[in-house]
Amino acid sequence: MSADIAQAVRTPLRRPLDPRALAVPLVVFAALALLPAAAAFGATSYVLSLGARVMIFAIAAISLDLILGYGAMVSFGHAAYLGIGAYAAGILMAEGVDDALLGAGAAIAASGLFALVTGYVSIRTKGVAFIMITLAFGQMAYFVANSLSEYGGSDGLTMASRSTLLGLKLLKNDLTFYYVVLACLAGSYLLCRAVVAARFGRALRAIRENPVRMAAVGYDVERIRLVAYVIAGMIAGLSGFLLANQTEFVSPAYMAWQRSGELIVMVILGGMGSLVGAILGAVAFLMLEETLSHLMEHWKVVFGPLLVLVVLFVRGGLTGLLAGGKRHG
């Protein structure tokens, strides 16, 4: 039995490509690409800003889904990486370094390093212990950010402007910035899709189902989980860099545990174990939040029960609803 499991992980999947499996991702990305054209008929600036924000959080949700949906690692500190990425951009800007490539590289590296250090400890736990230790590390990052009085402390840090790209102020243009964020979302999605489809991804899913048996057949369970954890942290760091540039502001609130909870809700709402579901979950979550907050003062009273009903009665989240119970990448 153990030998069969090992062989199944090593052997690439050779299923014929189902066109329906590509339909949802293609429609989602096509809709996002065409949104600026639709915005031209209305409040262009508002639509571009909201669309960019949705895609930024979709990147963070994809990174969380990699470890939550495929690795069964329920991280309640995932927003820390988003915040670290944002602070990397803000601090570099405050020190006179405004190049987007340097800022993004620093955000990804800083988030990856924090994920490596904290993940090395966290992955040695499981269940509630894993949730609590990731929450503790996330809160640690939150309080460190609050103590950075040189960079605004609890009041946050206002950036002088958006980052430049090779010396050009291309990101100052909302339309250009929108498509840069879209490109980052597409790149993150394709990267995670490649990781999941590779032998590494099959091993990660097998570990989710039975870590003891995978260890018995010779797989280094902790190393595989740690690599996935670091990849997720780095992608979330990229989303933090983009968020800082969109808002031109950095705040410790980006790292709060409530933000981590929202990311988890996005993943569950879209459908765990479906990368495109993370995108759909982010879209649905933020659009519901935006709509309800304009309709009523106490919108969370309606928002909360609505999310609970979706989780309870819509199997597989939004992707399960769209696909009639079948998961799409």
Automatic annotation (TrEMBL):
<keyword id="KW-0812">Transmembrane</keyword>
<feature type="transmembrane region" description="Helical">
    <location>
        <begin position="226"/>
        <end position="244"/>
    </location>
</feature>
<keyword id="KW-1003">Cell membrane</keyword>
<feature type="transmembrane region" description="Helical">
    <location>
        <begin position="21"/>
        <end position="41"/>
    </location>
</feature>
<protein>
    <submittedName>
        <fullName>Branched-chain amino acid ABC transporter permease</fullName>
    </submittedName>
</protein>
<feature type="transmembrane region" description="Helical">
    <location>
        <begin position="177"/>
        <end position="198"/>
    </location>
</feature>
<dbReference type="InterPro" id="IPR001851">
    <property type="entry name" value="ABC_transp_permease"/>
</dbReference>
<feature type="transmembrane region" description="Helical">
    <location>
        <begin position="300"/>
        <end position="323"/>
    </location>
</feature>
<keyword id="KW-1133">Transmembrane helix</keyword>
<feature type="transmembrane region" description="Helical">
    <location>
        <begin position="128"/>
        <end position="145"/>
    </location>
</feature>
<feature type="transmembrane region" description="Helical">
    <location>
        <begin position="75"/>
        <end position="94"/>
    </location>
</feature>
<dbReference type="Pfam" id="PF02653">
    <property type="entry name" value="BPD_transp_2"/>
</dbReference>
<keyword id="KW-0472">Membrane</keyword>
<feature type="transmembrane region" description="Helical">
    <location>
        <begin position="264"/>
        <end position="288"/>
    </location>
</feature>
<feature type="transmembrane region" description="Helical">
    <location>
        <begin position="47"/>
        <end position="68"/>
    </location>
</feature>
<dbReference type="InterPro" id="IPR043428">
    <property type="entry name" value="LivM-like"/>
</dbReference>
<feature type="transmembrane region" description="Helical">
    <location>
        <begin position="100"/>
        <end position="121"/>
    </location>
</feature>
